[in-house]
Design goal:
about 120 residues, mainly alpha, two-stranded antiparallel ribbon, 4 helices, 2 strands, about 10% strand, elongated
Length: about 120
């Protein structure tokens, strides 16, 4: 239905104050909301359309599942043939291993933030 921008911002403040979601401490503006008069992507009868992007610690679960799936594929060396043919990966798949460690470190950072706030 029809929503005023002030109502959206008040709702976001309530989410923060009630600690409904655990937000990351290093990103003070961890919620971004964009309101527009009409959505360019979907046809609706509403006057206002909105999109909210939030950065909170629940994303760690998504990263963990993705990492688990990657580990399973990597263990079987599944879908790596095409990469091994590329010059960039001629010496090995170190780029993949480095990226995996980066995601693992990110998961640990988010988990640490969850533990601090509990």
């Amino acid at each position: 239905g029809d929503v005023e921008p002030t109502e959206v911002h008040k709702s976001l403040l309530r989410i923060r104050e009630r600690r409904i979601a655990q937000f990351i401490p290093w990103g003070p503006a961890s919620i971004q909301v964009a309101l527009t008069k009409k959505s360019p992507y979907t046809q609706t009868q509403h006057r206002v359309s909105g999109l909210m992007m939030a950065n909170h610690t629940s994303i760690a679960g998504l990263f963990s599942r993705t990492l688990l799936q990657y580990d399973r594929l990597r263990k079987r060396n599944a879908f790596l043939d095409l990469y091994k043919r590329e010059p960039m990966f001629a010496d090995g798949l170190d780029e993949f291993d480095d990226a995996r460690e980066t995601v693992h470190d990110l998961i640990n950072e988010y988990r640490a933030c969850e533990n601090e706030t509990l």
